[in-house]
Amino acid sequence: MSPTSINSWLAFDIGGANIKAADGRGWSYSEPFAMWQEWKRLPDVLAHIKSLRPSSHYAVTMTGEIADCFSGRRAGVKHIVGSCSAALGKRDVVFYGVDGSLLGATEAMHQPLQVAASNWHALARFAGSIVSSGRSWLIDIGSTTTDIVPLACGQPIPQGTNDWDRLLCGELVYTGMERTPVPALRQSLPHRGDSRPVACECFATSHDVWLLLGVLSEDTQSSTTADHMPATRDAARVRMARSMLLEPASFTFADAIEAATAIADSQTRLIQSAMGPMIQNPLPEDRVVLSGQGEMLARRVLDHMNWDPQILSLKDIMGADLSRVAPAHAVAMIAQQIL
């Protein structure tokens, strides 16, 4: 590895379920991190990622502050800022704010709501650099949530700037490709001509849906599923059976795919219902930037709407790995430009 340059940046996107990093020059990294269970390990994980890509400066955006191991957002921000300061160096790290500013550790501690849940704004600014004129939208679907951000002439123009306001106006939809429990999407599921109630337990999640439908790849090493068993199609079939309290041994792949298709349709409609009110007088020149691992789901949403915008895919523009960590990449680029 070449020596650290005098003005090199490494940015972190610290979420509630994953930690992602990027240097703004093409390097990226992502690993699962269950903040609600492993919050004490955060400094060690950050130090490990730092060792993989030593840099002279560090920038951080976050959403993990709402994990229920913390008493509230302020406590969550305090822990994340403190962990970053310990692992990365208090004088070498800055935190991205929802107004586009970069705050030092002391400022971030004093203004916790300014840096809480800020990664969507950084990503929207990056998307705006791609669609710098006219009317456009960013749709970013990750493992847990969906962000819908309107843009005008390349600038974010959200109705809300915090989680609760964005959730209220539909710009934040709490559904994603992996962590959404099945009962949050369906109260009943089709099974061999019947409609069977879904148990209100986290027996299966959206991860199982998209595994079964072939959108997400199998991972025999993953244990982030509802039952901590592998992320394989057969294990997803078992989890889907349990969601209806059926015996897995007699629940076929055809049964599982029928259920998964119904759940995918419900998830599509959920995002569509949030997106619909934002689209007034659809125009042929409208553009949509797609980001995150749920790009295929976003395309399904657009297909169900009476709207044919120009679609730009960050996956196509940046590659799959960099698109997956796009908020971290965006923060690194912003930091390089303004500091």
In short:
The protein is α/β, with parallel strands linked by helices and 339 residues long. The protein has helices at 35-38, 42-52, 73-89, 105-110, 112-115, 119-130, 163-169, 206-212, 233-243, 253-275, 295-304, 314-318, 320-324, 326-338; strands spanning 9-14, 18-22, 28-32, 57-62, 93-96, 102-104, 135-141, 146-152, 155-156, 172-173, 188-191, 194-197, 287-291, 310-313. It is globular and about 60 Å long.
Topology diagram in text:
Elements: E1 9-14, E2 18-22, E3 28-32, H1 35-38, H2 42-52, E4 57-62, H3 73-89, E5 93-96, E6 102-104, H4 105-110, H5 112-115, H6 119-130, E7 135-141, E8 146-152, E9 155-156, H7 163-169, E10 172-173, E11 188-191, E12 194-197, H8 206-212, H9 233-243, H10 253-275, E13 287-291, H11 295-304, E14 310-313, H12 314-318, H13 320-324, H14 326-338
Parallel strand pairs: 1-4, 4-5, 7-13, 13-14
Antiparallel strand pairs: 1-2, 2-3, 5-6, 7-8, 8-9, 8-10, 11-12
How does this model look, in words?
40% of the residues lie in helices and 19% in strands. With 339 residues, the chain is α/β, with parallel strands linked by helices. Helix 6 (119-130) packs across helix 14 and helix 10 packs across helix 11 (295-304).
Shape by Cα distribution: globular
* Spatial ordering of strands, largest sheet: 3-2-1-4-5-6
Distance between the termini: 24 Å
Given this structure, which CATH class of the largest domain is correct? Alpha Beta
On the 0-100 scale, what is the average pLDDT? 95
Could you name the CATH topology of the largest domain?
Nucleotidyltransferase, domain 5
* Shape-level CATH architecture of the largest domain: 2-Layer Sandwich
| Strand-pairing-aware structural class | alpha/beta
CATH superfamily of the largest domain: conserved archaeal protein q6m145
Nearest-angstrom radius of gyration? Answer: 20 Å
Q: How many strands, what sense, and barrel or not for the largest sheet?
A: 6 strands, mixed
What portion of residues belong to β-strands? 15-25%
Task: Output the helix-strand order.
Answer: EEEHHEHEEHHHEEEHEEEHHHEHEHHH
How many β-strands, per DSSP? Answer: 14
